[in-house]
Amino acid sequence: KNATHYQLTAALSSVSAYQWQPNTNTYTAVNPEQNAFGTTTQTQPIVCKIPQTNLNLQLQLPNNTNIPSTTAITIWLGITYLKEQNNTHTPYKTPKAMQCIAII
Fold it and tell me: How far is CA 99 from CA 1, 6, 90, 103, in A?
């Protein structure tokens, strides 16, 4: 309730499918190297009291990434509340939130 600004974060990550290994009673990644890449982008701090109608966050996959069909892409959207003091935006430790908004 004391926040002056907020900042949106968009994140993209990949998750390999997993396969059950009965000999070891564990799941292992089908494409473990695909669990390692991702990207994020953030807005500039946005004033809380001004309604926003046209925010745009763009995420780009690395150009050289071949994504196997056994790998899912997850897209996340998060928010952090900030307080502006002395021309500096300091994030509140809570509340923050991030939610998966798409799985492709």
Answer: 21, 16, 22, 11
